[in-house]
Amino acid sequence: MPQGTYHFPKGFLWGTATASHQVEGNNTNNNWWKWEQEGHTDGSAAVAADWWSGRWREDFDRAAETGQNAHRLSLEWSRIQPTPDSWDEDAIEKYRLMLRGLQDRGMTPMVTLHHFTDPLWVSEMGGWETQDIVPLFARYVRKMVDALKEYTNLWVTINEPNVYALSGYGLGAFPPGRTDMKLAMQVLANMLRGHAAAYRAIHELQPEARVGYALHFRPMVPRLSWSPLDILMRKIRYDGVNMGFPTGISTGVMKTPLGKFNIPEAKGTQDYLGLNYYSVDTVWFDITKPGELFSNSGFPKDADMSSTNFIANIPQGIFDSLKWIVRTYPNLPILVTENGVEDFDDHMRPRYLVEHLHQVWRAVNFNWPVKGYFHWSLVDNFEWERGWTQRFGLWGLDVDTQQRIRRPSVDLYEEICKENGISSEMVQKYCPESFEKLFPS
Ligand code: IFM
What we know:
Layout: E1 5-7, E2 13-17, H1 20-23, H2 31-37, H3 56-65, E3 70-74, H4 77-80, H5 89-104, E4 108-114, H6 120-124, H7 133-148, E5 154-159, H8 161-170, H9 181-205, E6 210-216, E7 220-222, H10 228-242, H11 244-251, E8 253-256, E9 259-262, E10 273-276, E11 281-285, E12 295-298, H12 316-328, E13 334-338, H13 349-365, E14 370-375, E15 395-398, E16 403-406, H14 408-419, E17 421-423, H15 424-430, H16 435-438
Parallel strand pairs: 2-3, 2-14, 3-4, 4-5, 5-6, 6-10, 7-11, 10-13, 13-14
Antiparallel strand pairs: 1-17, 8-9, 11-12, 15-16
Helix pairs in contact: 7-9, 8-9, 9-11, 12-13
The structure holds 5-hydroxymethyl-3,4-dihydroxypiperidine.
Residues 19, 22, 160, 276, 338, 376, 383, 392 line the site of 5-hydroxymethyl-3,4-dihydroxypiperidine (IFM).
């Protein structure tokens, strides 16, 4: 049986990613909490993983003890600025403690400034629908960079702006539940303006900062490779989902299937690209989906599906995504800011993890500048409209008792982080079904 280890470069960041609303608990002053109370989601975030009461300490201990050297977390704007005219200094102090807590544990903090939630006062004034949001977001960003720059220089301005805009304004699954694709593109454009303003504000306050955003990138293939309609729909959907921010940052003109937006100030506003990769979509023409510009998506029939059929395990897709990034932005550093799978009983996660990391290793082996990997997620957390029905954590969570359950993937990821690589022994031990793929005989 072949033996060996796929090693990663020295200094590679190994971490997990979380987001405030999904782990903190009792974030009662934002648009998502309201959305949950109105019954749009499968339950409420409630106390979540109870980080706001201090359980972040024990979870950071778990991460550090199991070899992770980095963690990506997000700040909750609605706590920091509960009203347009007030700052909550106690909340800011808690975030200082968290970042210091990471540093004390030898972990590099990566900080996301906006991860899906908006303060209620922001959504009441129309959220990201108008450009009025841009100076307000920049003001909040300045406040936080000033407060936290001692502890981090690695910033994510906005997490998955494409998912925020499309889910909230195109598909109606996120607040405010609108189904208007044109409006979704307008929201995306304002997010790009907000990102650009944040990029410049951060660099003004912290010239050495590394600033980017996290792009949810979906590789796509037409369902029927010979069908002109499926090919066309794949192109429209791909451009609509993936290309808004990248075109805007490359050229200063954000291109979407529903029009162009001139945003010259966005050009060049990234020091790295954050890749959130989960799966690949199969796309086809669907006359019943005018709201989605007549496209529909799914997964290949024979795909290796996750427990709630939310994710197909297609590791080649992360390699293809990285390839797209290096071709689009040669030499730009890349961080995998999210990758993971919902898997309550951990039957799939070990192979999903190992097979995706093997593809990341292939990319690194081509000298592509991938600098780190943040698994989604450290502990089970509130999964937006799907509530607690999907479990993405390395550690499981009993929300009522707050007990953490150590899934086998914890041990696997610990071995990977500590070895700075994936060995044949690990694959044999945790996911023998992947062995032939990684170590062909
Ligand atoms: O939980 C989410 C996260 O908030 C954003 N990226 C995808 C994850 C899994 O769905």
